[in-house]
Amino acid sequence: MNDKDRYLARLKRIEGQVRGIHRMVDEEQYCIDILTQVSAVNSALRNVALGLLDDHMRHCVRDAAQSGGEAADAKFQEVTDAIARFARS
Prior knowledge:
The protein has three helices and no strands.
């Protein structure tokens, strides 16, 4: 299974978890149980994001760094900005 397939499979599971949370709210289940599921979804999304960031650095950024010049600078700035956004969430 390649990276894309793994990400798509994980996102499909996350989508199912979110539907489950929707159902829990609709059925007025215990708030703490719902919050537990929300936390699990947040963690799963964070793991997907970290995986994507790692892949981006290992492929796109590495290739740009080997080429050098403005393209490399742009990729490094792109990663820095992505990490900053990720750190704020």
